[in-house]
Amino acid sequence: MYKYDAIDRQLINERVDQFRDQVRRWKAGELSDDEFRPLRLQNGLYIQRHAPMFRIAVPYAMLSSAQLRRLGEVASKYDRGYGHFTTRHNLQLNWPKIEDVPEILAELAEVEMHAIQTSGNCLRNITTDQFAGVAADEVIDPRPLAEILRQWTTFHPEFAFLPRKFKIAISGTQEDRAVTWFHDIGLQLHVQNGETGFRVIVGGGLGRTPIRGQVVREFLPWQHILTYCEAILRVYNRQGRRDNAYKARIKILVQALGVEAFAQLVEDEWAHGKDGPATITQAEFDRVAAHFTAPAYSAESVSNAALEAQLTANKAFSQWVARSTHPHKVPGYTAVTLSLKKPGIAPGDITSEQMATVADLADQYSFGELRISHEQNIILADVKLTDLHALWQKAKAAGLATPNTGLLTGIICCPGGDFCDLANAKSIPIAKAIQARFDDLDYLFDIGEIDLNISGCMNACGHHHVGHIGVLGVDKNDSEFYQVTLGGRQGNDAKLGKVIGPSFAADEMPDVVDKIIKVYIESRHADERFLDTFDRIGIDPFKNRVYEGRAHGKAKAAQKEAA
Amino acid sequence: MAQLIKLGAAATDSWQTLEIAEGETPETVALPTGDVIFPLAVWQARKAEIISCHKRIGLLLQPDERVEDVAADLDYFIVIAVNFPKFVDGRGYSTASLLRQRYHYQGELRAVGDVLHDQLFFYQRVGFDSYALKDGKNLVHAIEAGFKPFSDAYQTSTTQPQPHFRRRA
Q1: What residues contact residue A533 under an 8 Å CB cut-off, 6+ apart?
Q2: Does B33 touch chain A (CB under 8 A)?
Q3: Phi and psi (nearest 5°) for A118?
Q4: Fewer CB within 10 Å: N-end or C-end of chain A?
């Protein structure tokens, strides 16, 4: 993975000093709360319901074991001994003291980590596919260009105060696992006539106004990505709305202008910067790419006989392997997902002890590196098939081997109303109640692949719009209710789920999910996944079952009137 | 009164900014003598008159005013002031970048309005060379620390046209 050189190290150390001085001036009253707010946000620091929340960047998902160990140490020294992985490659601490944050930043800087631009109306952390570099379906490794983009976004002088936050995702595989259709800029690497370049998608986003992005350029040679992004950002910085925070994202500008007109503005702007000094050189690409070379894979011929025997002998192991491994481009290796979705634990949460354990596992089984997925799990990307059984036993002992990745209880979930100031409703208790209802592993496997995503408000940190089943917390007359969507999905055919109908109270949610699942089980053809059945039969059978016997529409109004 | 920073030091400001009071219009407002920074609308309405009676002319640009609309006139201006009504409104950074990089404006470029210590580094990089620091803020500390929180930068900018990757030894 990328190792800092002199300038990288110098800049993050200077960032620590800068923030230390900003906190000092704020405490001394030299900076007002309003003046300090954007500064602390651009260092990942929110003031939340109970305490500050501090968001640490994990650029394009990669961590070394030393970095994870340090995160664990920081979480136990300055917080309550755990952290929360988000859907955008960050680790959040929920209870640090503001006064401690400069120290935390200093300790993170020692292991080449930071919280730069993890919040605020600026260029945010670049995200990508958790299997980058090892996926069997990879066309181009996105990480060198993601690192080059990370450097470009860092302290960009022209784009530090944008109309609203700005998120870039980059993917280099056949199947998109980076949600590129729903980012401010989504970049899909592909090869055209032997040349590598990007499909550039702009104006996607979830949140209050979910919109699928649109292609502004089908092919952009990779050398031009910085100048082209400069052009997009300059158009947005100048023309994006600043009168209404809810209409300030670039998706609203693209919608208002139309994608053709927007693309033309970008092309006109780009004409000035194209081929300028910010054009990426082959030397720079090679320098950065050299950090992402393949590790020393073992070349010994692998016999799968032992693994086959273990799989046959042990059902629990074989269930875990079925859910937790991902095809690897190198024979004899696999990418392993360690689930942070153990029932009863807030999805994405990890204790300091678990971080230390995972760091050890990474050292022992995966060349000392690991990844974070937007599904809020941890990936050991380079595990030998022959090590799987030993790894499973250790992961299981640490509570990290729940075999539910991609299944109903492998829920994506934001921190919700328990922690977050923005939330309309709690989300973690809903996840826990659903996990408790579906605790029969055989049944979960029978239900098969299904994404259940929960957000506590329309800001959509839990990506509910793209869940096969999406749950959104809403506020109705100061009570917490939950709106359900069906049929959303990520990937190449990414689309938004459809709202099934009126919202539900918290205690109804396990029943609602149960009914939805029952409709699927009863209606499915052999080998049909939930989504396939949904696409074939449509939303009505689900709707009818879920609202069966419930008054709604006119009947409900009449009932209310009578009461 | 804001506190002017120029060439890395506190400076006295010889310029006054023309303000259009209620009931006045760009067409009718009286033009003061001396070093005056004119709002864009006044410049556009009274260009010939301003040129005939002022040797030293300043221009004020608001965040939504387009550099393109004044690009042909840049040689007239000794100073262009770019207003930041709130420091979180970042449009002026693009205004400055365009003035310097695309239209090669060589005169004084001044950040005015809600100008604070922690944005000075960015202002300088996009091409500002004078700064009307908000009244009541610590001028000495701003001059001493505000311009160099970072010793280098990755990206191209007005003050550093080469990205860091082209400057590697």
Answers
A1: A520, A523, A524, A525
A2: no
A3: -85, -5
A4: C
For residue A164, the model assigns a pLDDT of: 97
Q: Token pair 């945010």 is at which residue?
A: A124
Domain with CATH 3.90.480.20 in chain A: 6-109, 308-397
Select the residue of A158, A281, A283 nearest B93 (Cβ to Cβ). A158
For the A308-397 domain, the top CATH level (class) is alpha beta
Interface membership of B154 toward A (CB under 8 Å): yes
- pLDDT tens, A354-370? 999 999 999 999 999 99
Interface confidence (ipTM) of the complex? 0.98
A280 contact residues in B (CB cutoff 8 A): 165
Range(s) within chain A of domains with CATH label 3.30.413.10:
143-289, 412-562
Angular region, A461: left φ>0, alpha ψ -120 to 50, beta rest: alpha
Cβ of A29 under 8 Å from any chain B Cβ? no
Q: Does A2 touch chain B (CB under 8 A)?
A: no
- The answer to whether A27 faces chain B, any CB pair under 8 Å, is no
Provide CB contacts within 8 A for A489, sequence distance 6+.
A451, A466, A468, A495, A531
Using CA coordinates, name the residue in chain B closest to A151. Answer: B154
- Closest Cβ opposite residue A158 in set B89, B94, B164: B94
Nearest CA in chain B to A17: B149
Supply the range of the domain harboring residue B127: 3-166
A228 touches chain B (CB under 8 A): no
Q: In whole angstroms, what is the distance from residue A529 CA to residue A377 CA?
A: 22
CATH number corresponding to A143-289: 3.30.413.10
Do B88 and A38 count as a contact with CB atoms less than 8 A apart? yes
Which residues of B fall within a CB distance of 8 Å from A226? 155, 163
Q: Do B102 and A272 touch (CB under 8 A)?
A: yes
Residue type, A471: V
Give the HSE-up count for residue B57: Cα atoms under 13 Å, Cβ half-sphere: 22
Torsion of CA A537, A538, A543, A546, to 10 degrees: 50
- Give the 3-state secondary structure of residue A489: strand
Q: Give B65→chain A minimum CA distance, Å.
A: 10
User: Are A346 and A415 contacting, i.e. CB atoms less than 8 angstroms apart?
Assistant: yes
Fold of A6-109: Sulfite Reductase Hemoprotein; domain 2 (3.90.480)
Gap between the Cα atoms of A357 and A375, Å rounded: 20
Number of domains comprising chain B: 1
CATH topology of domain A412-562: Sulfite Reductase Hemoprotein; domain 1 (3.30.413)
Among A534, A455, A428, residue whose Cα is nearest residue A488: A534
Percent of chain A at pLDDT exceeding 70:
97
Which of A158, A161, A250, A286 is the best substitution to test chain B (most B C-beta atoms within 10 A)? Answer: A158
Rounded average pLDDT per 10-residue block, chain A, 563 residues:
96 98 96 96 86 93 97 97 93 93 98 97 94 92 97 98 97 92 97 96 93 97 98 98 96 98 98 98 97 90 82 96 94 95 93 98 97 94 95 97 95 91 92 95 95 94 95 92 96 93 96 97 95 97 93 60 62
* CB atoms closer than 10 angstroms to residue A241: 16
Contacts of B150 in chain A (CB under 8 A): 11, 14-15, 18, 155
Using an 8 Å CB-CB cutoff, list chain B residues near A39: 118
Contact A158 B145 (CB under 8 A): no
The residues that bridge with A323 in the sheet, in sequence order, are: none
